[in-house]
Structure formats: structure tokens, C-alpha cells
Amino acid sequence: MTASTAVEFLIWLLIAASAISVLAKRLRIPYTVALVLGGLLLSLFHWHYLSPLQPGLRPNWLTPDVILILFLPALVFEGSVKLNVRDLLHDSVPLLLLANFGVLIATLVTGYLVHWTIGLPLVIALLFGAIISATDPISVLAIFRDMRTDPRLSLIIEGESLLNDGTAVVLFQVILAGLVAGQLSLVKSAGQFLLAVVGGAALGVLLGYAAFRITKRIDDPQIEITLTTLVAYGSYLIAYRLHWSGIIATASAGLIVGNLGGEGMSPRTRAALESFWEYLAFVMNSLVFLLIGLEVHIDALAHSWRTGLLAVAVVLIGRAVSVYLLVPVSNFLAENIPLRWQHVVVWGGLRGALALALALSLDNTVPYRDTVLDLTFAVVVFSILVQGLSIKPLLRILGLGNDQIAGA
User: Which residues constitute the domain of residue 156?
Assistant: First the structure.
């Protein structure tokens, strides 16, 4: 694929994303729901019409490493820069339990059940478990705001999503490295995991604080937006080179910039910064969903719909086990999370762009790549279309919407 063809390819994807966004507003449906439907239509169109005429439609430069480096920093930084650290610290016990041990439990439960029920090799099944363990509740959070649900419930779901992104990506990379090496050592993997997490967090805090010190001395929206872009992608790339967690580095930097950096920014700069990162996250989310439409074999997925539903059920079981097992521990150590809230945390743990990006990043040489890609897409489609659209009735049934703000 030539440079001009690659640019044309991206232009067509952006045109599709814009059309889907306009249509979502007209139909008054969440943009992520419209994106999923757009991805399904693109998949059908691609495999029935474009593929025979133009195989290999994805640009050659869009390699697995480029996919991770291009998409993940923007998606994670945009989410972290908006969160309040004080609120996160207030609920640090449940958040850390769910984002760390919860991801590990969900990965193990999902992996072993997929291995036993669908028949994938155990390492591949665990790789799928890691890919699908990260949550992305963006469409659910809008519903929470509309129904005036307790802000603490929203924070728990959003905060867990931010923190478990890093854990899921590190776990994914550790399992993938073991797959490539031909063996998965528990001790070695645990050491790599801890080093990646601690190193990435330290690097992100350092770079985020450096950006904060610089923004205090200047008042220029363009320069400060450029600086945050350098921090978001620079922290990821440096951590990547050091074999630390780029996602955790980017998330840590975003938290520092969002909470300390605001003190040194004028209202004009702050508004420009938020608009820029919302736009960039919109573009990256859109591209991920549309690219997955070009990769997923929708006909094969339709023919094996029972396998897709089985994967959905297994992922929900893994999510339920992790939440219902860990939240009672959190309740013993910190402020209570009511059982009704726990049901919402389980059902509201949607999967989205991060899972799709991780699946897309798998090289063609990875065994069962297409199967993992198809199963990931099936779970994401179900979580957004079924779980996302049914969360409002669930909140009403549990009495957590409008003026019935959570109790025990």
C-alpha cells in the first residue's frame, strides 16, 4: 500500500466515523452503540465486496506495535486526565483490589473456562482472558449522569476501568511473551509484572510532574496541548523501551497533569486541552472499531454464534467471580459497597476499544489469532449492545436511579 493509498484509507475511515457520529445523534443512541453497528456493517461490506477486489486492505505500516503505540496512549491519557485523585484515594481499596487481583482472577477464570468449553489451547485462552479483562464503561457513565446515580458508584466503575487497563495490558504482554518463548514461567512472569507496574508508575509520575512545573510558567494553549501530547506518548514510548508498562506510565502522567497541571493553567487553556483530548479519543475510538470491522470474519462468527455466546457467558462468569469475591474483602477493609451496587459493577463492566486494540495488535503468526479476534469482537458487541442498553432498566429495578440514590 502506497503512502497516498494509506492516507485515502484513513480519510475514508474518518468520513465513516463522522457519518456514524451524526447518525448516532439523530437517532439518539450512544455513539459506541452506533460504532459497533458501523463495525458490523463494514465487516459485511468488506468481506463480501472489498476483500475479493482488494485483499490486505489494512495499511502495511499498521503493524501490531504501531497499533498499540498509536491508540492506547490517547485512549488512556484522555480518561486519566479527567479523574480526581482525591476521589480515587477515597476508594483506593476497592479500586486497587478490582483493578489488580480482579483482572488476574477474571483472566484465570475466563482462560480456563474457554480452554475447557471452547477447546482453545490454555495459553491462547489465557491470552484471550487478559485481552477481554479490561473494562470500558464510557457509554454506561453517560447513563449514570442522566439518571443522577450516586457519583461514588460512577467513580468506582470509571476508576476501576482506568486502573485495570494497565494491569490487563501488562498481563497480556507477559502471557504473549511466554507464548512466543514457548513456556510461561510463573516466577519470571510475576517479576516482570511487578517491574513493569512499578517502573511505569514511577516514570509517569516523574514526567507528569515535570509537565506540571513547565505549564505553571507559561500560558499558551497550543504549547501546553503539545506538551501534554509529548507526555502522553513520550511516557508510553520510554516505558516501552525500558520494558515497563507504557499504559501505566501514561495513566500516571495523566493523573498528575489533570490534578496538578490544572493549577497552573488558565481557564482558556484548560478548555482547549479538554476539547483536544476529547477529539483525539473520539478519533482513536472510532478507528479501532472500524479497523476491527475490516479484520473480523463476520460470516464465520455468524456460523459459530454458539461459540460467541459461550465466550460471552464465560467472560461474564469471570467478571462476576472477581467482583463478588473481592468486594466483600473491600467492605471489610474500607467503606461499604452495597450488594445492589455490586450487581451494577458486574453488568456495567463493558468491554470496548482497549480490548479491540489488544486483539488487533496480535501478529498474524500468533496461533488462533482470527479466533481470538472474532471472540473478542463478539464479547464487545454483546457488552455494548446488550449490557450497555440494559443498564438503565437495571438501575431502575435496583432503585439506583433518579432520586433513589444508593442505600444499603
Answer: 3-398
Residues 6+ apart with CB under 8 A from 8: none
Q: What is the CATH number of the domain that holds 133?
A: 1.20.1530.20
In a domain, 406, yes or no: no
- 163 in a structural domain: yes
Amino acid, res. 18: S
Domain count for the chain: 1
With 0-12 CB in 10 A as exposed, 13-18 as middle and 19+ as buried, what is 199?
middle
- Residue 11 placed within a domain: yes
Give the DSSP letter string of 329-368.
Answer: HHHHHSS---HHHHHHHHHT----HHHHHHHHTS-TTSTT
pLDDT lower than 70: segments of the chain:
1-3, 46-62, 64, 139, 184-185, 187, 262, 297-301, 401-408
Instruction: Compute the C-alpha angle 17/286/157, nearest 5°.
Output: 135
pTM: 0.85
Matching residue, cell 483525539: 280
Helices 31-45 & 267-295 angle (0-180, nearest 10): 30
* Residue 193 is assigned to a structural domain of this protein: yes
Q: What is the pLDDT of residues 285-331, one digit of tens each?
A: 888 888 877 777 666 667 778 899 999 999 999 999 999 999 999 99
Distance CA 281, CA 269 (A): 18
Question: 154, 345 in Cβ contact below 8 A?
Answer: no
Q: Strand, helix or coil at 384?
A: helix
